[in-house]
Amino acid sequence: MGHGLSFGPLTGNSIHLCLDMQRLFSREGPWPTPWMERVLPVVAEIAAQHPRQTVFTRFRAPWVADNATGQWQNLYRKWPQVTQRECDPALFELMDPLRELAPPATMFDKSTYSAFATGELKTVLDRRRADALIVTGSETDVCVVATVMQAVDIGYRVIVVTNAICSSSDEGHDRLLAHFRERLGQQIETARSDEVLAAWSGRTRPC
Fold first, then answer.
1. In what order do the strands lie in the sheet with 106-110?
2. Sign (positive/negative) of CA torsion 29, 35, 38, 43?
3. Do the domain assignments include residue 48?
4. Helix, strand, coil fractions of the chain, as percent rounded to 5
5. Pairing of strands 132-138, 188-191
6. Within a domain: residue 83?
7. Is residue 7 assigned to a domain?
8. What is the domain extent for residue 120?
């Protein structure tokens, strides 16, 4: 369920931030997220209606585990099949039909859970004078929560689209949405895609 847009309509300076909707996390990938196929049409609808205001991220593992930093090495020693040396490069691509939207959508790669880790995303958002982030993608209790919490720390208005995020853990997904609503409701809004699209003007303010 959504919870609604507590802080009013969205403007043309809002950005749709779509996290890691890649084949890597589909049923054909080594880290399958079974819900991905279910939420994909919703994500695609948002992106197709606002492609120039959409930013896609792609998670990319290092070439080998030894190229990673710190505890990331342990992760990739457990999952060598997701390293670039062993993984089919096609699995790092966005799911269709999202791939066809970039460009005009923006796309960049990341190697950590949070999309803000390198500073590249913040630079893009500052240049566009982003006043809200509409968050979709995978996984709710990994990359989504890491990115959302860093966005909150920066001070963005954050809207999590409840029917456009997915996880391989039902329990983790449900707990995170409850946490957003019950503990962070003054900084994180949770809403369904129809509420978001109805409230989004789509007109970009002059820079």
1. 106-110, 54-59, 14-19, 132-138, 158-166, 188-191
2. negative
3. yes
4. 40, 20, 40
5. unpaired
6. no
7. no
8. 14-59+95-199
Q: Is residue 185 part of a domain?
A: yes
Smallest Cα–Cα separation from 151: which of 172, 171, 126, 173? 126
The amino acid present at 135, given as its one-letter code, is V
Is residue 55 exposed (0-12), middle (13-18) or buried (19+ Cβ within 10 Å)? buried
Q: Are 126 and 113 in contact (CB under 8 A)?
A: no
Q: How far apart are CA 132 and CA 63, in angstroms?
A: 34
97-130 b/e with 16+ CB inside 10 Å = b?
ebbebbeebbbeebeebbbbeeeebbeebeebeb
Backbone angles phi, psi at 44, to 5 degrees: -65, -35
Average pLDDT over residues 97-112: 96
Q: For 144-182, what is each residue's pLDDT tens digit?
A: 999 999 999 999 999 999 999 999 999 999 999 999 999
The pair of structure tokens assigned to 165 is 């995020």
User: Distance (Å, rounded) from C-alpha 175 to C-alpha 145?
Assistant: 11
